């Protein structure tokens, strides 16, 4: 009886841990008070828009047209790009638009963190706007983003990412659902004080807050968290819209998540001393949205073992029936291209990839360079 109680408790705790970032944490966030912003009158700050590219020739025509539209609306906007040793002519496409974009060419494969540092060192704007080579910004994005800096306590502003192509595959559908949840969590975090970290699709900081960091870290997380460490607010603007096409192939998404998780955990280790000095509410947010999620795969694995052991103790027939049922569902999901079973498999794959990336980083390995997904 005692063993059954222990197994049941372990299973319950694992279920709570897996659900925590998506169910319990959002509920607790909604109970926190709103921290208002205090804008003042004055001209908007000047801005520089930065992005890195590697073998993005297919995305460049649309990207450059998008940048031209933004430049027309904001003639003073400085635009800088870093080409990380592309072999498909990406750098040449950007260089051909020299009156629009200032191009820096890397010495070879150096990685995004290295490239962004080079761009930030060259930028002259009071606000640095970071985006990706395959991301398109809505026409009003820049002015709406800069407007949030009217509050002197705001040190960084995130935008909202809208994914395109959610209907193209189960992998894309799961990715879209995950990101919609992520966007809502960031909205609530912003309302209650600080968002705990940005992704590279669209975010910005005051240039004076740009930190120094090694090339091996996840620059999006490192740079955005520098705002919080400096005692300023990192907020999210719902009306600053960026758009990006989803990854549709499982193998591409798996590799992408392994890479991001490895670099995120490596970055976490690098930032640990500063993270420990954050306010209690920010430490709670960081642990809930990041650390608990990074180990979601482990919680699923431990919970599955506990459930299997509990079923075996109750009835070997129950254990066998449950195991066969799970195996059948996974087999159907692996073969299916859409539907709930395919989505279930993609969720499990995402957790497995994240756990693999974290384990990789814990052994001292990380990923510096990146390759664009071919299935976008």
Structural features, described:
The structure is a single chain. The protein is α/β, with parallel strands linked by helices and 376 residues long. The protein has a single domain (1-376), classed as Spore Coat Polysaccharide Biosynthesis Protein SpsA, Chain A, CATH 3.90.550. The chain has helices at 2-31, 60-73, 90-95, 112-122, 141-147, 170-191, 219-229, 250-275, 280-294, 296-314, 316-335, 340-362, and strands at residues 47-53, 78-83, 102-105, 127-131, 136-137, 154-164, 202-206, 233-245. Strands 3-2-1-4-7-6-8-5 form an eight-stranded mixed β-sheet. α3 (90-95) links the parallel β2 and β3. α6 (170-191) packs across α12 (340-362). The protein is globular.
Write the layout of secondary structure elements.
Layout lengths: L1 H30 L15 E7 L6 H14 L4 E6 L6 H6 L6 E4 L6 H11 L4 E5 L4 E2 L3 H7 L6 E11 L5 H22 L10 E5 L12 H11 L3 E13 L4 H26 L4 H15 L1 H19 L1 H20 L4 H23 L14
Parallel strand pairs: 1-2, 1-4, 2-3, 6-8
Antiparallel strand pairs: 4-7, 5-8, 6-7
Helix pairs in contact: 1-6, 1-9, 1-10, 6-12, 7-8, 8-12, 10-11, 10-12, 11-12
Keywords: Glycosyltransferase, Membrane, Transferase, Transmembrane, Transmembrane helix
Protein name: Glycosyltransferase
GO molecular function: glycosyltransferase activity
């Amino acid at each position: 009886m005692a063993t059954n109680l222990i197994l049941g408790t372990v299973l319950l705790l694992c279920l709570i841990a897996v659900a925590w970032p998506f169910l319990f944490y959002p509920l607790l966030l909604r109970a926190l008070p709103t921290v208002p912003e205090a804008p003042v009158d004055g001209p908007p700050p000047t801005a520089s828009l930065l992005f890195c590219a590697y073998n993005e020739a297919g995305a460049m025509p649309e990207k450059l047209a998008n940048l031209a539209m933004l430049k027309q609306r904001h003639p003073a906007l400085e635009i800088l790009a870093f080409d990380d040793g592309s072999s498909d002519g990406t750098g040449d496409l950007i260089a051909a638009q020299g009156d629009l974009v200032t191009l820096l060419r890397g010495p070879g494969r150096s990685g995004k963190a290295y490239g962004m540092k080079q761009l930030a060192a060259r930028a002259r704007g009071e606000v640095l706007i970071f985006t990706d080579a395959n991301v398109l910004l809505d026409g009003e994005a820049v002015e709406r983003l800069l407007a949030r800096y009217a509050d002197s306590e705001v040190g960084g502003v995130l935008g909202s990412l809208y994914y395109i192509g959610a209907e193209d595959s189960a992998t894309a559908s799961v990715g879209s659902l995950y990101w919609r949840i992520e966007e809502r969590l960031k909205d609530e975090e912003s309302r209650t004080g600080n968002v705990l970290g940005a992704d590279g699709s669209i975010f910005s900081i005051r240039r004076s807050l740009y930190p120094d960091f090694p090339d091996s870290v996840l620059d999006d997380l490192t740079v955005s968290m520098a705002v919080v460490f400096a005692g300023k607010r990192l907020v999210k603007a719902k009306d600053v819209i960026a758009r990006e096409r989803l990854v549709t192939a499982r193998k591409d998404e798996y590799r992408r998540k392994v890479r991001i998780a490895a670099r995120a955990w490596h970055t976490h280790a690098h930032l640990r001393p500063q993270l420990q000095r954050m306010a209690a509410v920010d430490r709670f947010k960081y642990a809930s949205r990041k650390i608990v999620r990074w180990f979601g795969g482990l919680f699923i694995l431990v919970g599955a073992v506990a459930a299997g052991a509990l079923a075996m103790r109750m009835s070997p027939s129950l254990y066998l029936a449950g195991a066969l049922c799970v195996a059948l569902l996974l087999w159907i999901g692996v073969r299916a291209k859409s539907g709930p079973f395919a989505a279930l498999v993609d969720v499990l794959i995402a957790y497995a990839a994240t756990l693999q990336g974290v384990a990789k980083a814990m052994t001292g390995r990380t990923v510096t360079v990146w390759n664009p997904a071919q299935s976008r």
